[in-house]
Amino acid sequence: xxxxLNTMDTTENRSLQxxxxxxxxxxxxxxxxxxxxxLATVLQTTLDIETLLQLFYEEIADNLNITGLIYVNRNxxxxxxxxxxxxxxxSYRLSxxxxxxxxxxxxxxxxxxxxxxxxxxxxxxxxLYPMKNALTYREVLQTAHTDQLxxxxxxxxxxxxxxxxxxxxxxxxxxxxxxxxxIDWFKNINDTYGHVxxxxxxxxxxxxxxxPSRSTDQTFRYGGEEFVVLLHxxxxxxxxxxxxxxxxxxxxxxxxxDGEAIKITISVGTATLNTGDTAKSFFNRADRALYTAKRxxxxxxxxxxxDVKTTETV
Length: 314
Hints:
There is one protein chain. This protein is α+β, with helices and mostly antiparallel strands. The chain is built from nine helices and twelve strands. It folds into two domains: 2-144, 2-Layer Sandwich (Beta-Lactamase), CATH 3.30.450.40; 155-312, Reverse transcriptase/Diguanylate cyclase domain (Alpha-Beta Plaits). The strands form three sheets. It has a five-stranded antiparallel β-sheet with strand order 1-4-5-2-3, with helices on one face. A five-stranded mixed β-sheet has the order 7-8-6-11-12, with helices on both faces. The chain has a two-stranded antiparallel ribbon with strand order 9-10. A hairpin with a 4-residue loop joins strand 2 and strand 3 (78-83). Residues 1-25 have low confidence and may be disordered.
């Protein structure tokens, strides 16, 4: 476990070696055994990585005056942000002898003292093996929830992920958007070039979607030639921009099958989560926008009617 301490507050230099809490009025830090017991009790209650980090954050925010944290695991394409950013941050690379588990960044209002740094390291040590178990569980679920042809998430994965991301979006008051994507004239491709060619077109589509997307965006095969992309922390304007980038990237692709060059285009519908949305109503708004795009001539992006005014004013 490696530690890098970064401070963004350049207005003052404060000693990190002082003893005790930041002020006499601060809540006393728990003892190391007490903190370990609290974390062990809480962290063994879930295998879901987002719930695990939420529980971990709640404990350290209350006990160690942490304002926020960010967890990043680039190998697993995970980025989770909780709480608020602040003037000072401490970054830790997480690993066990067998695995690299990603990176945690903590945010604080003032430079930490040595006593706090030690408690942070004790907290992270308590998190490591629950984190490893959660990542293993996630890998097992992903295998069961992966479309075997394209490598995208399957319908079951979409249903589970969409509900969870809606809850997180509402809890943290962050925007969540969705793209509904359909390959134009896909039946004609199958009829003309055969189903093997159709399979290669589907695989090419998923690979191409990933190019203009961010590491935190998630792609799912909804059924047949229809796909869904979840866009975390993305406004209606941002969703429209990403959708157009994806559309252009697909339009520029050529799929070569047995010497035949196949050009494909897509139609895209976008929607951004509203306060009263359920998973069904949220998806249905994107799906209606998709069919608006198809009725309007295909190979274009259409935004949900509720989001149009927002995109037009930017």
